[in-house]
Every structure is written in C-alpha cells, then in structure tokens.
Design brief:
The protein has 251 residues and is an alpha/beta fold. The chain has helices at residues 16-29, 46-53, 79-84, 95-100, 105-117, 130-134, 138-149, 179-197, 199-202, 215-222, 239-246, and strands spanning 5-9, 36-40, 58-62, 89-92, 121-126, 161-165, 206-210, 229-232. The chain has a single domain, classed as Alpha-Beta Barrel (TIM Barrel). Strands 1-2-3-4-5-6-7-8 form an eight-stranded parallel barrel, surrounded by six helices. β2 (36-40), α2 and β3 (58-62) form a beta-alpha-beta unit. α1 (16-29) runs parallel beside α2. Bound molecules: phosphoenolpyruvate.
Length: 251
C-alpha cells in the first residue's frame, strides 16, 4: 500500500529566519497528518529546517544537487554534503531547472544515480510543455522522459524514487490539470515503470502530481486512485495554506 506524500517546494524563497517562523507554525498544523510530508527548501535554509523539524513528522529536502561527490564545480552542492546535514529528499529535474539551467534528461539521470548511491530519496520531475500538449504529444514526451531519467537505475533503488508529473503549463500559472488528466498521466508513468522494472517494483513507486495545487483542489486531486500525493510550489510558502493541503483528507 502506497502512503501519500505531499512535498513542498519553496523554490528561491525564504531566509533561515523566515524558515524558523514558518516551522514554528507549521509543525503543529500537520502533526496528525496521514500523508508523508517533505519540504524542499533553498540550500541556505537546510540546516535551520532540519533542526526545527527534528522531532516532527516533517522531512526536509533540497531542490537540486550535482552528481559529483566533490571537486571543482563552483556553486554546486554534492549529495555527500546533503547527507552530512541529514537531508532526506532531493528534487531532481524540476522544469525550472530544465528551462532556465538547461538540465537534460541525461544530466538528471546522472544526478538520480548519484542521489540514490548516497541514500537520498529523489523526487524526479517530468511533464510536457503547453506546446507539446497542444500538439497532442504529451504522452510520448512523458514516456520518453521517464525512460531516460530511469535508465540503468537499479531495481532495488526504486523504493527511493518518487516521480512527480508536473505539466509545465500548470506550474505557477494557476491552471491545474483536471484530476482525470493528472490521474491518466500517473497511470501512463506507472505503465512505463512496469515495462522497465516489472509490476512488483512499479506497484510500490509513488507517482505524484504538481502544478497549481491549492487548498481548493487538493482533495479532488489526491483522492484520485493513481495520484499518490503532490508537489506544491506557491501554496507551500504559507504555512496555513500548505497545512490545509496536507490535511486535505481531514475536512
Ligand atoms: C512546483 O514548483 O513544483 C510547482 C508545482 O509549483 P506551483 O504549485 O506553484 O504550480
């Protein structure tokens, strides 16, 4: 049985002081949540976030990492560094990384292998652009991305992989995929994973939806049978709002 996971992505927002204030409120709001919770914060907030949440049900993640262990890669952060802070999750291949920093499926695959080697849980993002959807090729795009990012990943490591279906046209735009479309994309992704790893592995992989999730649509999306939770950007920034999303099943 797959437990839902709801992950926040703060993107490039909040100082450590802001993070402290946030967790002072948020921890209590979600202490009875039935879903797993992860919040992916900017690198500079990791230490504060880990300290603030250490006795809670909230796990902390980074939003990116490089695949090398160490070396002359100015400005980058390694999986070993993340592990040294007790970070448990990392987002890989977010569409903003693909779009603004030219990340390719090949690079994301290298990062995924490295994250798994270091025992991190990876939230790997895939999803089509508006243009691709308008051309009706979204399923091909999603299948291709899944195959590429999961290339040569060990079966045994798949329990540390979460796939986030994030249609790019829905991210930060206020436009949400319909629950049926999002559910269908999650089915498609699971079918791809079954083809690669077999049903015993694929039935346990969590496949989540991201793209303008908010308190008013969280329940409809997260109660769909094939959507195992969400990756939430804008609405994870405000503790009360994100609390409502995490507690979508408590109303
Ligand atoms: C995201 O950053 O992954 C995301 C889905 O953003 P938003 O919820 O703001 O659309």
């Amino acid at each position: 049985m797959r437990n839902k996971i709801i992950a926040g992505n703060w993107k490039m927002n909040k100082t450590p002081e802001d993070a402290k204030q946030y967790f002072n409120e948020f921890i209590e709001l979600v202490e009875k949540a039935s879903s797993d919770i992860a919040i992916c914060v900017p690198f500079v907030d990791l230490q504060t976030a880990i300290e603030m949440t250490k006795d809670s049900n909230i796990k902390i993640g980074a939003q990116n990492m490089y695949y090398e262990k160490q070396g002359a890669f100015t400005g980058e952060i390694s999986p070993e560094m993340l592990k040294s802070l007790n970070v448990e999750y990392v987002i890989l291949g977010h569409s903003e990384r693909r779009q603004y920093f030219n990340e390719t499926d090949e690079l994301i695959n290298l990062k995924l292998k490295s994250a798994l080697n270091y025992g991190l849980n990876a939230i790997v993002c895939v999803g089509e652009t508006l243009e691709q959807r308008q051309k009706g090729i979204q399923n091909d795009v999603i299948s291709y991305q899944v195959k590429k990012v999961l290339k040569d990943i060990e079966k045994e490591d798949m329990d540390s992989v979460i796939i986030a279906y994030e249609p790019i046209w829905a991210i930060g735009t206020g436009k949400t995929a319909t629950s049926i479309d999002a559910n269908n994309a999650c089915i498609l992704i699971r079918n791809e994973i079954t083809e690669i790893f077999g049903v015993e592995i694929s039935k346990n992989v969590r496949i989540i939806y991201g793209g303008s999730v908010k308190p008013s649509n969280a329940k409809e999306l997260f109660t769909m049978p094939d959507i195992d939770g969400g990756l939430v950007g804008g609405c994870s920034l405000e503790s009360q709002e994100f609390g409502k999303i995490v507690n979508y099943d408590k109303e």
